[in-house]
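Consider a typical record:
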Amino acid sequence: MASRGRAKIVVRFLTMHQRVVDELGRRVAAGAWAPGDALPVEDALAAEIGVSRGVVREAVKALVAKGMLHVRPRTGTRVLPREHWNHLDRDVLRWQQAGDAAALLRDTGELRRIVEPEAARLAAERAGSEEVRGLYEALAAMEAAAADPGRGGYVEADIAFHRALLDASGNRLLGSLGRAVDIALEHSFLVSTQTPGAVEASLPGHRAVVRAVEARDPAAAAAAVLAIIEAADQEIARSPGLPGDAG
């Protein structure tokens, strides 16, 4: 499902606050401190990272808001178990991608199996001409990118297609979910299309989804999406870009 070759490079310019949030978040996600462990005191962290205590304090507040840390008087700042984390937060997803990529691929595949077939079913029942046009436009972008020798832009077009499908369901929560998990989808798509021929093989399935939605055939739309997800899982399992064991 997503792109082989050149991927779009996004340059992120971080403020000092964002840099410290990113540093601490990556450490927590990588297991530098186990659940229940206390972080070093503010003075020590500030000196190690090279920032003021106030910057560290604000970064800790940001991670508290993401469910990763808990601050309590006298006991200090402690790492919360992963079940407390906001796993739909874009930063948390990004940190987990760096620290436990195989688990994120597995979780993404499972989430897609649960959500996307029903979203396709709803889209076939509810989508109007504007939503169908959006799916066709995303499909056309995928086809154009697939025809490019470097596959430039295929991942972005593939993500846009699946986001458009969730939007076409008419369920606002599903639409928001699609935007929340863009990073997880990008990670999955980049791995799933590393095998030769994967990009070309994915296009007929996406065409089948659009045609089923346009024909108002919920069962066919759900089956077409499930076939895409299952094919992606197979590509991930044999991809040369797989980071370790994703099984």
